[in-house]
Design brief:
The chain is an alpha/beta fold and 329 residues long. 42% of the residues lie in helices and 16% in strands.
Length: 329
């Protein structure tokens, strides 16, 4: 496994700010030590998505296969001076067709990852979750933001903020396991998982506190593995040692969480965007639980976000290859 990202000092939001984007740079460096991942880039028919795929290719993170209407793709490349010479192109008729053909590439073993282009997320995910022709596994599909937050010592994973609107307890167990597996892939050997609510005490009137307690007991019973869970925890208790100490919370997770599991999509989306737009955090977005990692970015995402997302997908694909090789021995 790659060098762990667990730090000797606490992962405390109160700690001095990190220099530059050092956590992003570490993940990028880890990913560039892996072979590039063959990635079906789904309908990259605008300058932002096409440039992101080409830059990830230049950095040797992915080996892109562009799935799009060829004439439209070439026009975008020409108008924006993006060199796509030599990159394989799978012709499609429109965005829905791009999604279907990209998913087929994965099912045929011709791609190890998907990257969202300029189509709507619903179009791509509709093809991914299709019962007969999609990429479902026994695991619930979920989304993770990997945040590089100034002042926090390690990458901070937030889940689920984009796919599951109001997940059930059973679905949350998969969401937690997906996040733990992601943490392992990016080098966090024993992720500290905070199950968030509005309070740190169990209250029957606040269902998320009851579910948090249940998830922790599921981890005790081996139903969730590979991480250390605690909850319910309020956000301040999860990321600040000072806040946890004031409330006399004794926990291996409080004040140093690597993973924040939110009660629902609305809470997660607002938390992630608050960190991005108010705290200057950079983020990567990835969908897990399907046969392959899915790089899910939005039109507002920066090039840094797109490259970071590609790096994370590369590490996940590498971890899966290693697991398959180990299982085959």
């Amino acid at each position: 496994m790659s060098e762990p990202l667990n730090e000797s000092r606490p992962n405390d939001i109160d700690a001095p700010a990190a220099h530059g984007r050092e956590k992003y740079q570490r993940v990028l460096a880890m990913a560039r030590r892996q072979p590039p991942v063959i990635t079906a880039v789904v309908h990259p028919c605008d300058a932002v998505s096409l440039a992101g795929a080409v830059e990830a290719h230049r950095l040797n993170l992915i080996s892109p296969v562009l799935v799009a209407p060829p004439a439209r793709l070439q026009e975008v490349a020409r108008q924006n001076a993006i060199d796509i010479t030599g990159l394989p192109i799978i012709a499609s008729a429109h965005s829905h067709d791009s999604a279907t053909k990209a998913v087929s590439l994965v099912r045929e073993g011709r791609a190890e990852a998907l990257m969202k282009g300029s189509l709507h997320t619903d179009e791509l995910m509709g093809a991914v979750v299709a019962h007969d022709s999609g990429l479902r596994t026994e695991r619930r599909i979920s989304h993770c933001f990997i945040m590089d937050v100034p002042g926090y010592a390690a990458p901070l994973i937030i889940t689920d903020a984009a796919v599951n609107i109001a997940p059930t307890l059973e679905e949350k167990a998969d969401i937690v396991q997906n996040a733990i597996d992601l943490a392992h892939a990016i080098g966090i050997e024993q992720p500290l998982v905070a199950i968030l609510s509005a309070t740190e005490t169990v209250n029957a009137k606040v269902p998320s506190t009851v579910e948090a307690a249940a998830l922790c007991k599921m981890a005790d019973r081996g139903q969730i593995t590979g991480g250390t869970l605690d909850g319910p925890l309020a956000l301040d208790n999860a990321i600040s040692h000072q806040a946890a100490a004031i409330k006399h919370i004794v926990s291996p997770v409080a004040g140093r969480a690597n993973v924040l599991v939110v009660p629902d999509l609305e809470a997660g989306n607002m938390l992630a965007k608050s960190l991005s737009f108010l705290a200057g955090a950079e983020s990567a977005g990835i969908v897990l639980g399907a046969r392959v990692p899915i790089i899910l970015t939005s039109r507002a995402d920066t090039l840094v976000t797109r490259i970071a997302s590609s790096a994370v997908a590369t590490l996940i694909a590498a971890a899966r290859r290693q697991a398959m090789q180990k299982a085959a021995r």
